[in-house]
């Protein structure tokens, strides 16, 4: 039998573009990404190229860090501190809603950083022995620090990511927040109570944070909906971003990353029609609308809830 030649590798220009896209993705999620997730999105050649030119570096057993994230660790050490808050969250591999413009660095109270503070957001904290791990605040402490200082949507995205990663457990987070005292204690308890590791990404976490105070609405992340086939269709199964199964309301975090192109458009239309045919009210929220006008997003969903209540 004739032998089949091995497939040719992509040309250098293609490999370079793929590596550029990989680096951009890692930067977008906060500078640290899970190696398995990167491998699912990008080719082995793209990863090899980014590693060989030094723009991506291995971190721990399964992490990949951008050069800027590694530089954050150097900046923290330069002022005698450790990565904290969002920089620590990124270091632990949790994607962020808004990556920090400069590295968040924690130093012990009383430390004088003077001019070296430039280029860092310095946080003076009471760091006990054992509250530093691999150059950063440990996972639980990181979540609590973010909860106390960040806007609720950003803090919830961090907490959801921590639970999703398995580095923090829901019970220990709630217990630690309940025993917290002083400034930010109430914020810690609110974030801990709302945190849910089922959330798929920071966009979804932020959307849930925006809608938590809508009266009469009780959303569950990544809710599975199944049903028998309609004539001419197939057995229906969908996992929606957020759903209230009692009121049969679905709220989707619409991202072009997942819905772009002709095939994606058709898939979305079929999914939407199938949900409506089964009695679900569907609200689709774009990232720009959520970040630019959250009050309007909340009002739209509230109007849907009120309309259903009026029909009871």
From TrEMBL:
InterPro entries reported in the protein's UniProt record: Restrct_endonuc-II-like
Q: Which Gene3D superfamilies match?
A: VSR Endonuclease (3.40.960.10)
Entry protein name: DUF559 domain-containing protein
């Amino acid at each position: 039998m004739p032998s089949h030649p091995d497939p040719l590798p992509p040309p250098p220009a293609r490999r370079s573009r793929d590596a550029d896209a990989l680096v951009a993705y890692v930067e977008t999620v906060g500078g640290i990404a899970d190696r398995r997730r990167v491998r699912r999105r990008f080719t082995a050649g793209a990863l090899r190229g980014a590693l060989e030119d030094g723009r991506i570096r291995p971190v721990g057993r399964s992490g990949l860090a951008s050069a800027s994230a590694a530089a954050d660790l150097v900046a923290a050490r330069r002022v005698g501190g450790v990565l904290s808050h969002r920089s620590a969250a990124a270091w632990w591999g949790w994607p962020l809603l808004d990556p920090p413009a400069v590295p968040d660095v924690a130093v012990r109270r009383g430390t004088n950083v003077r001019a070296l503070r430039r280029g860092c957001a310095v946080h003076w904290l009471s760091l006990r022995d054992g509250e530093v791990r691999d150059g950063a605040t440990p996972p639980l402490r990181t979540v609590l620090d973010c909860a106390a200082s960040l806007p609720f949507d950003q803090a919830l995205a961090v907490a959801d990511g921590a639970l999703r990663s398995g580095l923090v457990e829901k019970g220990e987070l709630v217990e630690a927040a309940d025993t917290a005292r002083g400034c930010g204690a109430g914020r810690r308890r609110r974030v801990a109570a709302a945190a849910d590791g089922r959330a798929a990404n920071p966009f979804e976490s932020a959307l849930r944070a925006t809608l938590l105070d809508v009266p009469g609405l009780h959303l569950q992340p990544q809710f599975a909906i199944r049903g028998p086939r309609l004539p001419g269709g197939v057995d229906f199964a969908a996992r929606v971003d957020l759903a209230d199964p009692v009121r049969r309301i679905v709220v989707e975090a619409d991202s072009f990353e997942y819905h772009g192109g002709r095939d994606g458009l058709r898939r979305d239309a079929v999914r939407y029609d199938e949900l409506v045919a089964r009695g679900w009210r569907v609200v689709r929220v774009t990232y720009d609308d959520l970040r630019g006008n959250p009050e309007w997003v909340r009002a739209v969903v509230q109007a849907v809830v009120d309309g259903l209540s009026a029909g009871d």
